[in-house]
Specification:
Blueprint: E1 9-13, H1 17-28, E2 33-37, H2 40-49, E3 54-58, H3 66-76, E4 81-86, H4 91-99, E5 104-107, H5 112-153, H6 155-159, E6 179-181, E7 184-187, E8 192-195, E9 198-201, H7 204-215, H8 223-231, H9 237-257, E10 265-268, E11 272-275
Parallel strand pairs: 1-2, 1-3, 3-4, 4-5
Antiparallel strand pairs: 6-7, 7-8, 8-9, 10-11
Helix pairs in contact: 2-3, 5-7, 7-8, 7-9, 8-9
Length: about 280
């Protein structure tokens, strides 16, 4: 769980003032920055002005319900974690909420400890999502820079005469669905990579480890850094090795089963791990 409570922003949404007050005080006591909203409409206005790590919302409210608010948050703030609160538990509502992307589902009245534990897990997940996005952005920038360098060094590029620039057109934003990293095709958001036509499903931790090593290829990354940047907490190196080792072993096994050299992830004994040189990814 995160220990950086002072920078975590939480929004509590409930039309009952007593419940809003109680949950807000419960979270403020452990150091979170907490705002509250009396309706889904008010919550959306606040979300437009402030980035929240976690949003706790009642399901049954006049106007915009908690489930509808969840769907709207998924569109406007996909890295915010939503926890639903309800005094009317039903299996159908729980299943629908989780299907829409709720992080957790708490029954009112929940204990202060249950609320704090759920929020702490939500904040850790939110920060892992932000960390993953930063890794993906860094890889995409590296790939683009390498492509530009390769093009600049190409003899054909140097000899090709300059033609008049075409008339400007309005660019169309196209989402990046895949990225190429040497022999690997990466599918952001799906925790999946592929080698040729062979897909490889990874756990979120395996996926993030591979991305972090790719961003920092060319150097050996110690295990405590991998735990801190991928898992979101700090431990000493000996304990970090025990945490990271099974994830690396599983990643290597999956690569081997897909026909890829498992030594793509290189263990430098006593120091950490690095990504092996990938064809087409060298300066």
């Amino acid at each position: 769980m995160t220990t950086d409570n002072e920078t975590a922003h939480v929004l509590v949404v409930d039309d009952e003032s007593a419940i809003r007050y109680s949950i807000t005080k419960t979270l403020q006591r452990v150091g979170y920055q907490v705002d509250s909203a009396a309706s889904g409409e008010e919550a959306l206005e606040m979300i437009a002005r402030q980035n929240y790590d976690v949003i706790l919302t009642d399901i049954r409210m006049p106007g915009i319900s908690g489930v509808e608010l969840l769907a709207r948050v998924r569109e406007s703030a996909p890295e915010a974690i939503v926890i639903l609160l309800t005094g009317y538990a039903s299996l159908d509502t729980a299943v629908e909420s989780l299907r829409l992307g709720a992080h957790d589902y708490l029954i009112k009245p929940s204990s202060s400890q249950d609320i704090r534990d759920s929020v702490a897990r939500g904040i850790e997940r939110s920060r892992n999502l932000k960390r993953r996005r930063a890794l993906l952005d860094a890889i995409q920038n590296n790939v683009a820079e390498l492509a530009n360098v390769a093009e600049a060094k190409s003899p054909a590029a140097r000899e090709t005469p300059v033609e008049p620039a075409p008339a400007p057109v309005t660019p169309i934003a196209t989402p990046i669905n895949t990225m190429t990293l040497g022999p690997l095709t990466i599918f952001p958001g799906r925790y999946q990579i592929a080698i040729g036509e062979q897909p490889i499903d990874l756990t979120p931790t395996e996926f993030d480890l591979l991305l972090y090593l790719a961003v920092h290829r060319g150097r050996v990354v110690p295990c405590h850094e991998l735990v801190r940047e991928v898992r979101g907490y700090s431990i000493d190196e000996p304990e970090a090795r025990e945490v990271i080792r099974p994830h690396i072993s599983n990643l290597r096994r999956k690569l081997k089963n897909a026909g890829q050299d498992p030594d793509l992830v290189v263990n430098i004994r006593g120091i950490g791990y690095r990504l092996a040189d990938l064809p087409g990814m060298q300066d």
